[in-house]
Amino acid sequence: MQLSKNRLPFTFIAFLLWLGVSSCMSESGGRVWAENGGLLTSDGPHFIKGVCYHPVAIGRDTRSFELLAQDLRIMKAMGVNTIRVYEPITSKSALDAISQAGLSVIIGFGYNQDGVYDLQSGTYLDYIKSFKSHPAILFWELGNEYNFHPEWFEGSLDVWYTTLREAADAIHTEDPNHPVGTAHGEVPDADLINALACIDIWGLNVYRWDESHTALADFAQLSDKPVYFSELGADSYMAVGQLGYAQGENQRAQADATQNLLDHILTDSSQVAGVSIFSFTDGWWKAGEPEQQDVGGWAPGSSGVPYDATANEEYWGLVDIHRNKKEAYWIVKSHYDAYRKSER
User: Residue 136 sits in a domain of what CATH number?
Assistant: First the structure.
């Protein structure tokens, strides 16, 4: 969530250009492709009305889909058409349920997931071979704001960007029918966009108070590639009382921030392929004991989080851990229900 930008060394850019990065561009066609600033499917344009989804039950620290049927009903009622996950869904029955509910999935791959469908081991391709024909798949997404974490790559982001380029190339070869994206922390610079020409759609995790829409103009100055907000939102806890919001759990602050964010993004003039709100449900596993909801947590650059400049990591849900709807749920529902960009 930090707001700094990273710039690639010239030597890395030159290396990629020497390799011929244009060779990793996928051809348009197939079930889903990136074109004209958005996504197209065989059924027509797909504007992402999304939510980030990583359901972890009380007392646990790993994802499970035991409440998937209930969650899908809540999402559908909210107007969601796309789920964004941070790691592959390995259950075919779960993917089947998502597709049958009329939703699509952005499948995320991590760099190091202990050799389970991750980029470092190369096993991500095994997953793609198995599921590339599943109707739930919208596109593949590599990494999640890794540019904020050079320490994960022995201090060098070159390792990550090289992996990203090579993985995108391999995916395009294996599956020409789905775009490849990446979720970048804030707006990438021009050098990076040009070096990674193989990325079909850019996701932006942007936290600029309640003015994240300004990132769209910044990106448009650099590229005409499709772009969407891969993370956007606010938590429902105020670390301090300010701006008329009381300290403590505060759903009104979250709702107001969500309202202001979406008011500026879901407009006819916005050059955006969609939005994925962070996040569907609260996560009690993030900051303390997983049996209880704890205040705190840490994220890079939390100063951009409305309206207290603090990311209370266990309070980001549009619904709470028991699936009770927060005030922000109704804000998202009203915006998603009203917005019909694909029909205009």
Answer: 3.20.20.80
